[in-house]
Design brief:
The complex is a heterodimer of chains A (364) and B (590). Chain A has helices at residues 12-44, 51-82, 89-109, 117-144, 153-174, 186-189, 201-223, 225-235, 237-242, 247-273, 282-295, 300-322, 334-348; strands at residues 179-180, 191-194, 197-200, 275-276. Chain A is mainly alpha-helical. In chain A, helix 2 (51-82) runs antiparallel to helix 12, helix 3 packs across helix 10 and helix 7 (201-223) runs antiparallel to helix 10 (247-273). Chain B contains 28 helices and eight strands. Chain B has helices spanning 2-25, 28-32, 44-50, 52-59, 76-102, 114-120, 126-146, 152-170, 172-181, 185-191, 199-215, 219-228, 232-284, 293-307, 320-342, 347-366, 371-374, 398-420, 423-433, 435-440, 445-471, 481-494, 499-513, 529-543, 552-559, 561-572, 574-578, 581-589; strands at residues 36-39, 42-43, 192-193, 196-198, 386-387, 392-393, 514-515, 518-519. In chain B, helix 4 (52-59) packs across helix 7 (126-146) and helix 15 packs antiparallel against helix 21 (445-471). The chains are: A mainly alpha (364), B mainly alpha (590).
């Protein structure tokens, strides 16, 4: 991992690669500027989205990004502690959302959902958190613990297997149809004035819940005994063990906390999109990983910031950059923007925007 | 010691219960019950649910024998342990049955129907049938425990015989087809009724296998020794004969198999081509590429766009052979473009970024933006087949596609083989094992990695070109991430970095289970295919990361000293007795 950029020209193949990467960097910036300029020109001419449409795109981007950030925390913590990408984390998120659906559906049927929404949503949150935490712990125990000292690609491949296994287990158990959460009450769906701008109530709830959860996690990791052992294990497992920390238990705690965050995110997803299926976990999972890398892997506030940034790229990027280039059907290219962001971050700043925090042996 | 035994018994019993309950809960028992394997006793559903009981019964008292220890005597203790372990599992299953029967959970869990209860209680209903629910696994666990009493050779023969019975019953299509081609329809009709093996025929197959395995023991090794360990001149002659034999076999086999099986085998060939490419990237150079399908898509779309008369932008109507070099060039270019930014990244970042590239390529092919060229969701249609002078090979002629696939696979095997044995192949192995050391030895890492990426991409593009001609149309939905993952599973299950291993992986997985969107011999599995792929991937990583047919170097890397110890034990003749117990003990003990 290089911290500084390599010299522009060097002889031979590596030099060729460097010039290629420089070309990519310059081209990316050029495309970005060109696209934004195109959109601005259009905006001045009175074409393109209105100011309200831009505001909605930005708010939606931030809300979705806050959810990505919560999922990203799980990736970031596991990567920080064990040094591998837990590909199955997206499915941990999906499992919470799925179980939450059945709880909310039951509450809807007994007419508890519309009369006591606050209690219901708390129940749904706790069921989702419980499920996701249990799934995360079970996966760690069954699949990852035997691989503690394996070469680093082996747990990654295992997690891909787990991801597919969980997806199709859920498909087998609950069917492949998309399940729609009952609608939140009208008061929540209406637009609320917030800091002088009108935004949708659910999106505000999503952002507030995400920020509170994040703050709670930050306090947990910084202030509690378990949090301190998580940080110690992330720094150096062997020395942590010598200091009397139960490494296995700490790793379980890491997975549990990451799973709980994913469980919260599962319900936030439901509030934003309502539909859940066994496929739901996959794309948010990859994007949350992108967010974790964007913020610097192992860096918890970074993961949250990376999530919000990615949500904004994804929400605003297609309209802002691609539409300016004259590309039709830009909303289809949302995912392309997210993945391109991942590639560009890794080319421009592989350690993320806010710096990564990894154990010594993983910094290679 | 005693305490440890009890704990192990409990663990295996509960694992057995969990596995059986899982297969029933996820819906496999119901879905596969229609497929009878052995008439009238065993259906595929019951096989999938119950197979683990005897395994658990055997494992519950299978003590790993370590160096210098003598094997504890086996006796009634093992049998009782097997039975208890099975009973424990059966009890869990019975509890599950009661749960499904008492509460109506159909609204949440789709498979929890009254039919599931009926199947679990063997048609006897809840109070009476529960006895069987618990006792059948107990009986099977007892059988597993009893295996300890048999001598090593008898045990081997019994296991082999039961494995073969299952294989024959499962792959009934192949056997009926081959039997009818060699004018033995009568025999086929006698032993198979409605795709199920008759019980007496099953016994016959078992007896046959048991006898043959005893007779032919060690003869394979002898043949191999005779082929390879003679003087160089003889060896050349032998390999020429072998090559001729292989070619004759490949020419004859589509004729024997008929078009349905040829279709399956042609798909195997197609995926094998891709797997050979991925094998270079993952197996030799050690870079985990999860977006491999992108190159396949580039090859397929290039051929489609250039050859189809109704391709949206360029209706060049080129011949396939003219489009092929372009397709290869395009996929090589794609390999270069994807490879250059990623080669300096950490291994796991590389995996995710290549995955991102794979998705980017698919979404772009699907998008409105590029649909004037690539046709969006409709894709490119009416792609002509491969002209061969006297005939044109396309999807309607599975035998033709199969011959073509054979030729291309042989070509790719030859290319991979020569690359592997060349200077660049050694460079790949070196950088997979230790990048820093490889660089210190004067290997140009960047160049070696880019080469691997490009060669892999070219092989995938080649497969894509054939795929376009075979299918006659290309859609974005044929190039989902699943394809990359399935190819990865093929390479890993077969044995990373080992060409015969990859071939075995492709035949077993694509041929039997089926690939993405293409059914294999067991078309019944389609619904649960990916569940099985996922489970298989995890199992292989935990227990046998080097694959079914491992490359020697790879397994040495993964097992380190364990292997040298195994070699020593092998020489002492201990390992043959202990079977896989040693390695499993080592894994569990960690």
């Amino acid at each position: 991992m290089r911290a500084s950029f390599p010299p522009l020209l060097r002889r031979g193949w590596p030099g060729w690669v460097d010039s290629f990467l420089w070309t990519v960097r310059i081209a990316a910036i050029a495309v970005l500027i060109w696209g934004v300029a195109g959109t601005v020109v259009k905006g001045v001419a009175g074409e393109g989205p209105t100011a309200e449409a831009w505001r909605d795109l930005i708010v939606a981007g931030i809300a979705q990004g806050a959810m990505y950030g919560l999922i990203a925390l799980g990736y970031s913590m596991v990567y920080g502690v064990l040094g591998f990408i837990n590909f199955a984390h997206g499915e941990v998120f999906m499992s919470g959302a799925m179980v939450g659906f059945f709880v909310s559906d039951y509450l809807w049927e007994i007419h508890f959902w519309d009369t006591n929404f606050a209690v219901s949503i708390l129940l749904v949150f706790s069921s989702s958190i419980l499920t996701s935490t249990l799934v995360a712990i079970a996966v760690e125990r069954i699949a990852y613990r035997p691989l503690r000292n394996a070469p680093r690609l082996i747990p990654l491949i295992t997690s891909i297997g787990i991801s597919f296994f969980l997806q199709y287990t859920f498909a087998g158990l609950f069917g492949v149809a998309v399940k729609n959460y009952p609608p939140p009450p009208d008061s929540l769906r209406a637009r609320i004035g917030f800091l002088g701008i009108e935004i949708e109530g659910t999106k505000l709830v999503v952002v507030v819940v995400a920020v509170l959860t994040m703050a709670g996690l930050y306090l947990f990791v910084e202030r509690t005994r378990t949090g301190r052992s998580i940080r110690a294990v992330a720094e150096d497992k062997e020395i942590a063990a010598l200091m009397g920390i139960n490494v296995d238990r700490t790793i379980v705690a890491t997975f549990a906390v990451g799973g709980a965050m994913a469980g919260v995110a599962g319900i936030l997803w439901a509030l934003l999109f309502r539909g859940v299926s066994f496929h739901t976990g996959f794309l948010p999972g990859i994007k949350a990983f992108t967010a974790a890398v964007l913020g610097g892997i192992g860096n918890l506030p970074g993961a949250m910031a990376g999530g919000v940034l990615l949500g904004l790229f994804e929400g605003v990027g297609p309209q802002l950059v691609l539409a300016g280039l004259g590309i039709p059907g830009v909303s289809q290219l949302k995912d392309v923007v997210a993945f391109t962001a991942l590639v560009l971050v890794l080319i421009f700043r592989p350690a993320g925007l806010f710096g990564e925090r990894l154990a010594a042996e993983d910094r290679a | 010691m005693k305490d440890q035994d009890t704990r192990r018994l409990l663990r295996w019993g509960l694992v057995a219960g969990a596995v059986m309950t899982f297969t029933a809960a996820v819906g496999m028992l119901e879905a596969f019950d229609d497929r009878l394997l052995i008439r009238p006793v065993l259906s595929l559903g019951y096989l999938i649910m119950l197979w683990f009981a005897p395994v658990a019964g055997y494992q519950a008292t299978n003590t790993p024998v370590l160096e210098g220890l003598t094997r504890p005597p086996s006796g009634t203790r093992n049998v009782a342990a097997g039975a208890i372990c099975g009973l424990l599992g059966g009890t869990v299953l019975a509890a599950f049955t009661v749960l499904v029967d008492t509460f109506d959970l159909r609204g949440v869990f789709l498979p929890f129907s009254s039919r599931l209860v009926e199947l679990l209680t063997y048609g006897l209903g809840v109070p009476a049938g529960l006895l069987f629910t618990a006792l059948v696994p107990a009986g099977l666990g007892l059988v597993g425990g009893t295996l300890h009493l048999a001598s090593a050779s008898l045990r081997r023969r019994l296991i082999l015989a039961s494995e073969w019975v299952v294989v024959v019953a499962l792959l009934e299509q192949i056997f009926t087809q081959v039997l009818s081609r060699i004018r033995l329809e009568a025999l086929a009709e006698a032993i198979f009724t409605l795709r199920a093996l008759e019980w007496w025929a099953a016994l016959g197959v078992a007896a046959l296998v048991a006898v043959i395995s005893e007779r032919s023991r060690g003869s394979l090794a002898m043949v191999r020794q005779r082929l390879f360990a003679s003087d160089p001149r003889r060896r050349t002659a032998n390999s020429v004969w072998m090559a001729i034999g292989v070619v004759v076999f490949l020419i004859v086999i589509p004729q024997v198999l008929g078009s349905l099986l040829s279709e399956v085998l042609a798909n195997v060939g197609l995926f094998l081509l891709m797997a050979l490419g991925l094998n270079i990237v993952v197996g030799l150079a050690g870079m985990l590429d999860l977006g491999f399908v992108a190159f396949f898509a580039v090859g397929a779309y290039t051929v489609g766009v250039l050859t189809s008369p109704i391709s949206p932008r360029f209706a060049f109507e080129w011949s396939w052979w003219v489009a092929l070099p372009v397709a290869i060039a395009m996929s090589a270019l794609a390999g270069l473009l994807v490879g250059t930014p990623v080669i300096r990244m950490r291994g796991d970042y590389l995996a995710i970024v290549t995955l991102g590239f794979g998705e980017i390529v698919r979404i772009l092919f699907l998008s409105d933006w590029l649909s004037p060229t690539f046709g969006g969701a409709q894709g490119v249609q009416n792609i002509p087949g491969v002209p061969l002078g006297f005939t044109e090979v396309s999807g309607v002629d599975p035998e033709g596609v199969l011959y073509l696939a054979f030729v291309f696979v042989l070509l790719s095997v030859w290319v991979s083989w020569s690359l592997q044995e060349s200077r660049i192949g050694r460079a790949w192995t070196a950088l997979r094992e230790d990048e820093t050391v490889a660089e210190a030895m004067g290997i140009n890492i960047v160049r070696a990695k880019l080469n691997a990426f490009i060669v892999g991409a070219v092989l995938a593009g080649f497969a894509g070109a054939l795929f376009a001609a075979k299918l006659g149309s290309v859609f974005p939905s044929s190039f989902e991430l699943l394809v990359s993952i399935i190819i990865l599973v093929v390479v890993i299950v077969g044995g990373m970095g080992n060409i015969p291993g990859v071939a075995v992986g492709a035949v077993v997985l694509i041929g039997v289970l089926g690939g993405p969107q293409v059914p294999g011999l067991l078309a019944e599995f389609s619904e649960f295919k990916l569940l099985i792929y996922g489970a298989l991937l995890v199992f292989m990583m935990l227990r046998k990361p080097e694959g079914l047919v491992p490359s020697v170097r790879r397994s040495r890397e993964l097992h380190g000293e364990e292997l040298t110890q195994d070699a020593w034990l092998d020489k002492q003749g201990v390992l043959a007795e202990a079977g896989t117990a040693t390695t499993e003990g080592a894994v569990n003990g960690r």
